[in-house]
Design a protein that fits this description.
about 375 residues, alpha/beta, Rossmann fold, 7-stranded mixed beta sheet, 11 helices, 7 strands, elongated
Length: about 375
């Protein structure tokens, strides 16, 4: 413990989405995440109606605290919290609390490097809640003990807190030569990713176990994969393969070096329902109310291919790619990636039909 009484938290690597409101911004290119939010909405509504007991928190609860972890810059975070608040209000009314509805406070969390200016400039003017920003990594403690009643995180937990060091060690069996991810990689590479994700989830669940009040609910929405299915068969896996192919083409032409590609790995992981179940049960603080796998890609119009796919990936990955390779290659790289999406369109379209979104709904014991 530090002298301030707060736990010391290690500084985690940060991978912010593209800020602002421009052509390649996350704000303009997060349609896939919006579909994902809509797919999860019905499940969230059902769990709040069936499992949330407002009276358990306090006989006269005055403030209902909601945290959105990995909020990015909007607009999807606003849709998610609005839906949560509406569902909680309905639950209050069903419990006879219509005359004493609590105030709602939403705590928007992301790394300090996130574009909070864009986030807060686009807050809905008619929002039925008080808003605050909480900078920091959700892999550690962020909030006071037992202070949260509802935690939401959508498409954020797939980011590892760091790249496993063995991936860039030429002497390690997990050295990931010529690839940027564990998609289509040897078993040692995927094992290194699996191990890092497990470590991250141990610290994440421990922190949330401290922060969420007994009876509180946590909704985690993230890329996932069916038990026993290779990651190369889900949309993001295909995209990461195509990104790696594009970078290796540039290396063969001498635009970048192969060593630069070998030392670059995307710190992104998609767990299976079995993996998440084991991690939650090992933590012991939460009961599992739902652990569902959905296919949000099947609800996207077929026009989400090619150009839209490129914009989606660029909005999320341009920052981390520029940091490693420099910004000069970005336009060329994503032009090449666009060509690959057309070349491998059958593989990409097939992947969209796979279950690739994990929704874990947990209740604090």
């Amino acid at each position: 413990m530090s002298s301030s009484g707060k736990e010391e938290v290690a500084v985690m690597e940060s991978y912010p989405m593209n800020g602002g409101d421009g052509t390649f911004s996350y704000n303009k290119n997060s349609n896939f995440q919006r579909v994902a939010t809509n797919v999860a909405r019905e499940t969230i509504n059902e769990v709040i109606a069936e499992k949330l007991d407002i009276k358990q928190f306090s006989p006269a609860l005055t403030t209902f605290q909601i945290a959105d972890l990995g909020c990015s810059v909007g607009p999807n975070t606003f849709l998610a919290v609005q839906n949560i608040i509406e569902a909680v209000r309905r639950k209050c009314e069903s419990q006879g609390l219509s005359s004493q509805l609590p105030d709602f406070q939403v705590l928007f969390n992301d790394h300090a490097s996130n574009d909070f200016n864009t986030l807060f400039a686009s807050l809905p003017s008619d929002r039925p809640y008080y808003a605050a920003g909480v900078p920091g990594s959700f892999h550690g403690r962020l909030f006071p003990k037992a202070s949260l009643h509802f935690v939401h995180s959508s498409y954020a937990l797939q980011w590892l807190c760091k790249v496993p060091k063995e991936l860039v060690d030429p002497n390690s069996p997990a050295f990931n030569r010529g690839r940027v991810h564990y998609t289509s990689a040897p078993r040692e590479v995927s094992d290194a990713y699996t191990s890092q994700f497990a470590k991250d989830m141990v610290t994440f669940l421990h922190a949330r176990g401290e922060e969420i009040a007994s009876g509180g609910i946590m909704v985690l929405v993230m890329p996932g994969i069916a038990n026993g299915i290779p990651y190369s068969r889900v949309p993001s896996g295909v995209m990461f393969d195509l990104l790696g192919f594009s970078l290796m083409d540039m290396a063969k032409e001498g635009i970048i070096s192969e060593a630069q590609v070998d030392s670059f790995n995307l710190p992104v992981y998609a767990p299976s329902p079995d993996e998440m179940t084991a991690l939650v049960e090992s933590n012991g603080c939460f009961s599992i109310e739902r652990m569902d796998l959905a296919a949000p890609g099947s609800k996207i119009d077929v026009s989400f291919g090619g150009h839209a796919c490129m914009l989606h990936l660029r909005a999320g990955m341009e920052g981390i790619i520029s940091k490693h390779f420099g910004s000069d290659i970005i336009d060329d790289l994503f032009d090449r990636f666009l060509g690959k999406t057309n070349e491998f369109s059958d593989r990409l379209n097939s992947a969209y039909r796979q279950g690739s979104q994990l929704v874990a709904i947990l209740k604090r014991k």
